[in-house]
Amino acid sequence: MNAVGLLLISSLLNLPQAVDPDSAVRATIEKSIPGFQDRVVWWIEKKKCGSCHRTGMMVWSLSGARRRGFAVSDQLDEWISWSIAETFKNYRPGMVLLPLARAGLDASDDSISAGRTFLVTTQKPDGTWAVRGTKANRKNQVQQTSVYWGATWAVIGLLCTLPDLDTKSTSGQ
Length: 173
Known about the structure:
By secondary structure, this protein is an all-alpha fold. Helix content is 64%, strand content 0%.
């Protein structure tokens, strides 16, 4: 056997064992949940802010984890309620509707229903919502940028609470 053949056999013998991709993914998620939940508690207790990049992502990831059988904190429902209340204060419930809908809740769920009702009844005549800023120097002031992304989140959130249309039966009409 020549040197190239020996090198090839040697490299094949040193290959890592095949890993079940789903098991590896589940283990990775499982490993991240405790530290992530600690940050959720810190954010709620210290920051007391229902910002889009914290509350929506927290609701989405932990609800999705629970739905797929991962162990999550018994406080998750409390955190979701807090997130909804905080986002309603600043006209941002669309940021929570999206993750709740993606986590498997439907329009009959109280949280989804409350968010939908809030957005339907608080929309301004021009189609936007009076979304307040989150930056310290602009907190609680309606800001044009906040109005823009607030409207996009509201529409995305509301869209996620509607059933999909059967596009085959409506195409071409």
